[in-house]
């Protein structure tokens, strides 16, 4: 006895809907305002435990090659629009460290802009010129980090964002 086979054809793209959602997710504040409260309630040692090892493994080759040496003792904050959540990190004694508090430079943007930057789907300079990513504070430090990340080789895809 044959089992019924279900065939699902992909639905045709709906550009108006997808473009509208992309625009909303890019320019509206984060639809998850509770993330900031959750972020503030997590102690810094837990954040360090979760984030430092993967960051240092991911950038191990660049760290070993001295690519991060210009950032020794400096603090940089990456922040989602609206002021949170965010992460401040620095480079001390050959390791990337998650820190508490503000950075000397802050790079701020939407979650989608950071995802686009990480996946290299758009030139980083365009993201800054279009004001999708903004550097505040020590702009030389922020742009130095942007240039360093742009010069490194990596290839990975982040999971699809479901903001709405």
Automatic annotation (TrEMBL):
Keywords: Ubiquinone biosynthesis
Superkingdom of origin organism: Bacteria
InterPro entries: SCP2_sterol-bd_dom, SCP2_sterol-bd_dom_sf, UbiT
Pathway(s) of this molecule: Cofactor biosynthesis; ubiquinone biosynthesis
Position of the signal peptide: none
Domain SCP2 residues, every copy: 57-150
Purpose of the protein: Required for O(2)-independent ubiquinone (coenzyme Q) biosynthesis. Likely functions as an accessory factor.
Entry similarity comment: Belongs to the UbiT family.
Protein name listed in UniProt: Ubiquinone biosynthesis accessory factor UbiT
Taxon lineage: Bacteria, Pseudomonadati, Pseudomonadota, Gammaproteobacteria, Pseudomonadales
